[in-house]
Fold each of these.
Amino acid sequence: MERWSPPVELSRQEQALMKRLTRVRALFGFLRLHRHELFDETFQEQLEGMYRTTGAGEPPHPPALMCMVTLLQGYVGASDAEAVELAVVDLRWQMVLGCLGAATPPLSQGALQAFRERMVAHEMDRVLLERTVALVRSGAMTEGERRAVSKALRVAIDSRPLAGAGRVEDTINLLGHAARSIVRVVSKITERPPEEIGRKAGIPLLLAPSIKAGLDLDWSDPKQKAAAIQILERQVSSLQQWVDRHLDDVVEQPLRTYLDAITQVRDQDLETAEDGTVRIRQGVAPDRRVSIEDAEMRHGRKSRSKRFDGYKEHIARDLDLPIIVACAVTPAN
């Protein structure tokens, strides 16, 4: 497979172009000077790993060259069709791609689209981005170049609530939900009825329609509520120990998911009092889990008085072009 190996030293024409890129579009100059570091032999070998070694599906262009085109596209916001044309009519593109003076494009629109799909499928787009950022942070880019690059893109970032799909529950119901899910999965694995598993595992509370119904107490009475926590915690602990004894070698999902969930809820929501009893934690643990079925959603705030449960959606919009340049979803906070 052909590798991309453009010259490292600047030609006289490139030197003249570089002088014009110190204040405007500085990333062109940066990529030209450091392309051999970004696309070293090790990384080019990684890129070749996206292709079969049988000879079939051989790429028409060096993968590193195609990567560089995608970087330039992202920098100037060019479509595939525009990228092909810019590789012929824009001297800055030609300098970075190592084809100054070429009368025909070094790639086609279809090849670029196919390459991008291949990159995404192999998660090499993320590797390319990480390598580029690491190169900038290494000191290869001067402070002046950073300022010039940062001025090239003006964005507005907006964040808004995004409701989660999981059921939000209090501590007792979170523990009960996770425990019931564990018993259901164990029942399927062992081919025994859930009721039998619940009795053998020492958690008879699950035989009731709900955990709170099984506890059968006056929830407005602090003493009864404290006693209920002790009962539930003992039975949950008994269930975990029973699973460890009888299914220690079972590691597949979703059993491990629910076991991890019940451990997380116990660690976050329960604490040991001075007298040795277990009680609900005073205060809220950082990054507290609020749902068993959706492990990532969290409590969030729209404002000081309004709350929601789920995620936050972040959108970055280019102020000069009517396009969204980036988006992300993070747990609420």
Amino acid sequence: MTIFLFLIILAVLVLVHEAGHFFVAKFFKIRVDEFGFGFPPRLFSVSRGETRYSFNLIPFGGFVKIFGEDGAEEVKNGEESRNFSRKPRSVQALVLVAGIVGNFLLAWILISAGFMVGLPAPVGEELGLPVTDAALTVVEVLPDSPASRAEFLAGDKIISLSQDERILENPSTDSASAFIANTKSGAINVAVKRGSELFSFSVEPSSDVLEGRPAIGIAMDMLGVVRLPIHRAVLEGAKTTVFLSAEVARALALFIKDAFAGTADIKNLAGPVGIAGLVGEARAQGVAPLLSLTALISINLALINLIPFPALDGGRLLFVAIEAVRRKPIPAKIAQYANAAGFLVLLLFLVFITYHDIARLFN
């Protein structure tokens, strides 16, 4: 189910991104030859009007083939006005940036929907938003800890802790920490709510997690729910989208800087397998966390495409900018070779990240 849900999310994100290119190209009367879901080899395709819609073997992506985009197509009489490369540079830039804008807009819609459904929020912080239904919530599970082995998940709401005659209901952060730390020996029972389901875990605190006192390996915080009416949700959704975009851009810039310095940590990256795992965790927590995660992935997709690297939208925008400054087009062969090389590098990087995702699973 998780894999299927992940593929649906990926398909929606790609559809929105490529639809941005597609509709803006159509708006400016540019011919679109193919709308591809995934990357070749092609499985099957259907044609509607002048556009072929293809479904390809590699599902992690998609593309729109726009007439004249690589500058190498033969242009027949009467087709000049429908050729991408014959359009003004401003129009070319609008077509290229449309997919990125589409992903930002999708993130805004998803986050706004999350606020209407109810998004998790910390209790006691000055958010300026109404927080209700506060509960002690697991915000992190340490790897190779008693909690990890007992299959706790981030987002689990702790209902009670018990051991023999000791019972703690409706715990706070301090009372739960004290209950665990005062456990002399043996396992404790922890009742949690995950989404709409109730679970009970038996877990034995260990002194190996925190030096000096027993612990089970979870970070906890009092979290509630922010649930807003539609007009307020749309406004807060926009603010949150801008905030998350800035944070992701900052993290992405730092990773690129570290990559050039040779100090980038591959452990901080997640490929398709890692993201699928996150989707599974978010699904277990409910609709709102799943909407938030999908929005975050959409923001990541938008910002990655802004990077001025060949084969990405940002690389093509860079070519358009260079052509505008030079007042003449970049030779078609150079653009083709650059984009092909860029695509190969991106594909190899995807394989590399996926390998590390799988290795982490086995470790």
Amino acid sequence: MSTCAAVSRTLDEPLAGTAATARTWLLVEQPGPWGKQALTQSRLDAALGAELERSASAHGARVALIRRPARADGADGPAATPGAPRRVFLARTLPGNAWIRTALLAEDALGTLRDLDFAALDGDRGPAALPAGWVPYTGDPLALVCTNGRRDRCCAVLGRPLAARLAAMGGADVWEITHIGGHRFAPTLLTLPGGYAYGRLDAVRAADVLDAVRAGRVPTEGCRGRSTWDAPGQRAELAVREHTGEPEADALTVETVLPAEADRTEGTARTDGTAPAEGAARVGGTTRAAEAVRADPPRPRRWSVTVAHRDGRRWHLTLSEQTAGAPRPASCGAEPGPAGSLTVERIVSAAHQVPAAAGTPASPSVTHP
């Protein structure tokens, strides 16, 4: 039987606009086995995992477990030493304000993660909202490869060898991660602090991606999108990059994501390109409410998206959700369903607007998540 990744690759299912949505990522080192729902099915205290997941998801954040990669010979990574401290990372992915803070916590101190104020972190205080003990991370970019075979075998079969190769090559701080969405695009990679996700990578292409990330650039080949934005925002940003050739990671911001005129009675306007409400359908993502859209879609959904450059340029895009091609499973063992993708119908360049001088509000202002 074909795997979900093999079917998706054969169908050449589009990658753009399929990244998980998260403005903030909390990563907790947890060696050892992971279950399908790793936050509550691992050696991490299940009550703590469930509480972190609830509090994070309410404020545009995601929590995942990480561990050091297996060795290139296939042996497991470093074993957990009882009582050994755990590395934790908190990453914010906003353009122009992307950062990582890290801490080393004793195993019996992981409960202090309950003190994280995700609402404050999502506001203006940023790192200042963190408790004492969190320090700026100054190492290589974080390279997080999804390897949780209990969620989908493609992640383990394809992801673990990639993580091992990247760790052996150096130049990035490589970790295995429990889940970043999109099993069928395995092997998948998330880079932080920028938040760009990639799919269907081999070691050579992944190394090229990490070289670019270190230089502050965004390769668009194989890119699924920036996790800061929802699916239409991700697709629109990548379309503008392809249209203009803009490589700099922090040059573009998704200003608005609105239902297109014909669809405005069917959706809620978002004015910052960030995540839809919990349960909203996402194309190619992990939200299960998308099944309802698949079941009987009356017509393609459409969005109007505005993408801004830091030099004042803007582009207005119209996107539509299209369902075409042969059915494919979203993950191994799932029933095949219609494959949805986001199509860019048009890109219109707006009149150039010079950015405001320092200390003067821009007009119109950019609303950041």
